[in-house]
Design goal:
67 residues; alpha+beta; three-stranded antiparallel beta sheet; 2 helices; 5 strands; 16% helix; globular
Length: 67
C-alpha cells in the first residue's frame, strides 16, 4: 500500500466509522492508502507524487475564489 498525506488546505474533523470516533485531519499527516479514513474521505488526501507534479484540484471548494 502507498502513503497518502492530508492535503495542505484541509481543515476538518471527520467521523471514522471503524473506530466510532471523530478524528482531526492535520495537513501533511500521513495515512496508509488502505486506512478506513482514506476510504471514507478520499477528498482530503493526496499522494506525494501528486504534490511533486503540481496536480491541482479540479473543482473549487465552497467559498473558494479562483482567478
Amino acid at each position: 500500500m502507498s502513503i497518502l498525506r492530508v492535503k495542505a488546505d484541509v481543515k476538518a474533523v471527520v467521523y471514522d466509522e471503524e473506530t466510532d470516533t471523530h478524528v482531526p485531519l492535520t495537513p501533511g499527516q500521513e495515512y496508509d492508502s488502505g486506512d478506513s479514513l482514506v476510504k471514507q474521505h478520499p477528498w482530503a488526501f493526496q499522494r506525494d507524487a501528486d504534490v511533486e507534479r503540481g496536480i491541482e484540484q479540479g473543482t473549487r471548494r465552497p467559498g473558494e475564489r479562483r482567478g
